[in-house]
Amino acid sequence: MWPWGHAAVGYLLYTTWTRSRHGHPPRDLPTLWLLFGTQFPDLVDKPLAWWFGILPSGRALAHSLVPLVPLSVILYVYFARRGRPEYGVTFAIGALSHALTDALPALLAGEFERARFLLWPLLPHVEYDESSASILGHLASIELSPLLAVELGLGLVVVGVWWRDGMPGLAPIRSFVTERIIGSSDS
Ligand SMILES: [Zn+2]
Description:
Distance between the termini: 43 Å
Number of strands: 0
Helix content: 55-70%
Structural class: mainly alpha
Bound molecules: zinc ion
């Protein structure tokens, strides 16, 4: 799944959770934590595998529930003690939904060996053709496929949901850009 697909799935889960649990739409900073969580597995695994050769695959350490679940619990406890449990919840929603949606096509097809990265290193890593893997090469490999069309359609729907929610997360980015970037260039 592409980055916007992970962000879309994570946001739908988060807005559903916070509306049903707390009766209000997503808030700014938890939404940014959610966005970080939805990209976290790829931000960790792709560079460590493709650039540094430390991991055996672009889906290994941060795509595995073995470290992701304890990490999510630790972050939840950390933030809960500081009165911000939503930060931990949103990271967990983002990171865990990323790993599970990456595995979903294989699970739906009954090809469980392709989803075994969910339990790496307890199970062997999944072999991918990553001989020429790079971020640009990854993006250049985009082909119009039914899955891509679904992801793009889902992304558009979620942009509409996000807009209806009041565009949470946009205000802190806008004020950061205004104060730190535009403001510093004026002075
Ligand atoms: Zn991934």
